[in-house]
């Protein structure tokens, strides 16, 4: 009983495509194809590519019915060690959604570059700028609305008087506070300027000076 040799599997050769404003480019990933064995035929809406497959008895064939029309006389192809690249000139400046079709696909016009140029420079997107002055005012308002209590309230009051007072008020506060050991805080410069401010401890307490 004779055995029939199995036919070698036909290699799978992929193809892909992309487009520019004027061209549709089909790339066939057939390696080491011989340029004199590659045959390309262009129709108004068709592409046919055939080639011998190196180191094989098989022949590669690609038959495409294109989605839109091309200009056959302005189409070209090149053969490189890694691929066959076919460049087809578009008849109309359309954006192709698909490579193959029946010619009934929606025609989407590309915006001509001349129109884009004529429209002038594109404005950059508007950036939202923070109003730091407003933020600072809001923070100050929030701080003013916070009502401190006890010693904090007293300190806040002194700070406000010192900050908003005249030079004489500030001098009076500084002199009275320092000379009295922190027991007196006066805003009357006319009174404080005449003599040293005496220490006045709270009721029930006695001030005692420690000898060094």
Helix and strand arrangement:
Blueprint: E1 15-19, E2 23-28, E3 39-43, E4 46-52, E5 59-65, E6 76-79, E7 84-89, E8 94-95, E9 108-109, H1 113-118, H2 132-145, H3 150-164, H4 167-179, H5 189-192
Explain what this protein looks like in three dimensions:
This protein is of the alpha+beta class and 212 residues long. It contains five helices and nine strands. The mean pLDDT is 77.
Key phrases:
5 helices; 25% helix; 212 residues; CS_dom
Please identify the oligomeric state.
single chain
- Pattern of helices and strands: EEEEEEEEEHHHHH
Helix amount, in percent?
10-25%
Strand content: 15-25%
Number of helices: 5
Counting DSSP E segments of at least 2 residues, the number of strands comes to 9
Query: Alpha-carbon distance between the termini?
Result: 127 Å
Provide the low-confidence segments as ranges.
none
Radius of gyration of CA atoms, rounded to a whole number: 46 Å
Biggest β-sheet: strands ordered side by side in the sheet: 1-2-7-6
Biggest sheet descriptor: 4 strands, antiparallel
Nearest-integer average pLDDT: 77
Label the overall shape: rod-shaped
> What class, by secondary structure content?
alpha+beta
Domain SGS: 119-212
Domain CS: 10-100
Pfam families: CS, SGS
GO molecular function, one term: protein-folding chaperone binding
């Amino acid at each position: 009983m004779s055995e029939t040799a199995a036919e070698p599997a036909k290699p799978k050769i992929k193809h892909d495509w992309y487009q520019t404003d004027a061209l549709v480019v089909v790339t066939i990933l057939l390696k080491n194809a011989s340029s004199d064995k590659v045959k390309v035929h262009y129709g108004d809406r068709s592409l046919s590519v055939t080639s011998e497959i190196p180191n094989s008895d098989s022949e590669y064939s690609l038959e495409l019915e294109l989605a839109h029309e091309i200009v056959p006389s302005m189409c070209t192809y090149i053969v490189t060690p890694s691929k066959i690249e076919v460049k087809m000139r578009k008849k109309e400046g359309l954006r192709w959604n698909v490579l193959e079709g029946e010619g009934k696909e929606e025609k989407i016009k590309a915006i001509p570059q001349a129109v884009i140029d004529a429209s002038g420079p594109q404005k950059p997107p508007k950036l939202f700028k923070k109003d730091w002055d407003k933020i600072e005012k809001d923070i100050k308002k929030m701080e003013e609305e916070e009502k401190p209590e006890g010693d904090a309230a007293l300190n806040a009051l002194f700070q406000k008087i010192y900050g908003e007072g005249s030079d004489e008020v500030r001098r009076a506060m500084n002199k009275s506070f320092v000379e009295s050991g922190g027991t007196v805080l006066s805003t009357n410069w006319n009174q404080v300027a005449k003599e040293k401010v005496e220490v006045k401890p709270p009721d029930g307490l006695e001030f005692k000076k420690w000898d060094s």
